[in-house]
Amino acid sequence: MILIGLCGNAIMPLFYGYLADAYDVRTAYWVLFPCYLYLVFYAVQGHRIRSWK
Which end of the chain is more exposed for a tag (fewer CB within 10 A), N or C? Predict the structure, then answer.
């Protein structure tokens, strides 16, 4: 869980900011898209998983 928090809160905003400066905000938004997909997965099914096989 610590790695997820690190990537989501420390690393991804750096990539987002770089791409927003280099291209535009609309293109940079796609960097955060995998994070949102993971949040949807966790909300729907991931919270039920008790152990990884």
Answer: C
